[in-house]
Structure of Contactin-associated protein-like 3:
Amino acid sequence: GGSGPADEGEPLVNAHRRDSAVIGGVIAVVIFILLCVTAIAIRIYQQRKLRKENESKVSKKEEC
């Protein structure tokens, strides 16, 4: 998409600054979401691992 006429210098620069700020915000949000998803995935993986270990212990001891 085009952002305003190219004849005027300052508005284009301001638009560029706003665009870069928006892009920076979007990137920050995306990185934050990725970190959250990664943390959740690691949690789930660890819980599954613990459950498997607990199940093997439970089957040996036959406790709840």
